[in-house]
Amino acid sequence: MARVVRFHRHGGPEVLRIEDVEVPPPGPGDVRIRVKALGLNRAEASMRKGTYIETPTLPSGLGLEAAGIVEAIGDGVDGFAPGDAVSIIPPRSMPRWPAYGELVTFPAELVVKHPPSLGFEAAAATWMQYLTAYGALVDIARLGRGEPVVITAASSSVGLAAIQIANSVGAVPIAVTRTSAKKEALLAAGASHVVASEEEDLEAGLKEIAPAGVRVVLDAVGGPIFTPLTAAMSRGGILLEYGGLSPEPTPFPLLEVLAKTLTLRGYLVHEITGDPERLEAAKRFILDGLASGALKPVIARTFPFERIVEAHRFLESGEQFGKIVVTV
Ligand SMILES: NC(=O)c1ccc[n+]([C@@H]2O[C@H](COP(=O)([O-])OP(=O)(O)OC[C@H]3O[C@@H](n4cnc5c(N)ncnc54)[C@H](OP(=O)(O)O)[C@@H]3O)[C@@H](O)[C@H]2O)c1
């Protein structure tokens, strides 16, 4: 038996329960992991609430990121052995491969041997944020040296990963955060500039920083800031929309899109994780960055497994600066 987190109905953090379940031995191609740490993602709160892009059958487990020790391997698995320190590439389906548990099973192709010196908490905070930011900025937008890039929800785990990745390729990260409360922390975390979108004129602020316009925008917010964001973009620019944090409707900035032939593009990390070649390049980039110190996961707060409900409350508070980690 192992303790796992499940929910029997959609709702607030209080619907999460810790339950004992039987964990079958790993099937062919699978790896069973004794979890040491979990990384939390906004997607998990959305699935718990019933507003995610995937609808689970209830009761359902959840979770997209974990790190731990290999306990057993299924038939046909090469390259892993019991005792290896490993972490998980976020699976395409959360209910199919839920990560919130003491013992979890994942297909071997989603399991990575991370450098043990990274530690389980940082390893659990690595793959979602860096794969998401790398896929958008490097794989798709081909962000280059000296280029300004606008990063919204800058204090989210993906936002901070994007700042580090932008710096690692020599680009100029412009952080957009709601208020000035996290401004100093964002500068210390590597942002070249910070604009507080609820306190300043976002369009004017961005145009002052990048008078020639910004080619690449990485946005997790949507809603009314689409207007100033697109107004500050350069001709031929690309806005990668990967979130939807704003509860307000998102306007379509027709004239800006037309006049500057902008690309407004939806983006899911699955584009990278679902393509073995692109995933391999992404893993190399991230492992190299971790080894050189250019990439270093920022952990906002750590909660014990028993306080998963409180961890979800903090996740949705918007107060965090980086990744929320749960130790198991
Ligand atoms: N498409 C994909 O494949 C993919 C992959 C990973 C994550 N995501 C999405 O990326 C976003 C960030 O995820 P995460 O798990 O790293 O972070 P998170 O913890 O959900 O993000 C928290 C940050 O988002 C900002 N924020 C919170 N509520 C907001 C609101 N109502 N309006 C505007 N900003 C708000 C705040 O930043 P400031 O205080 O700095 O404003 C806050 O610190 C989420 O929307 C998530 O669903 C998408």
Automatic annotation (TrEMBL):
Secretion signal span: none
Domain Enoyl reductase (ER): 11-326
Gene3D superfamilies xrefs: Medium-chain alcohol dehydrogenases, catalytic domain, NAD(P)-binding Rossmann-like Domain
UniProt keyword annotations, A-Z: NADP, Oxidoreductase
SUPFAM superfamilies the UniProt entry points to: GroES-like, NAD(P)-binding Rossmann-fold domains
Source organism superkingdom: Bacteria
SMART domains the record matches: PKS_ER
Any one GO molecular function term: oxidoreductase activity, acting on NAD(P)H
InterPro entries for this protein: ADH-like_N, ER, GroES-like_sf, NAD(P)-bd_dom_sf
Full protein name: NADPH:quinone reductase
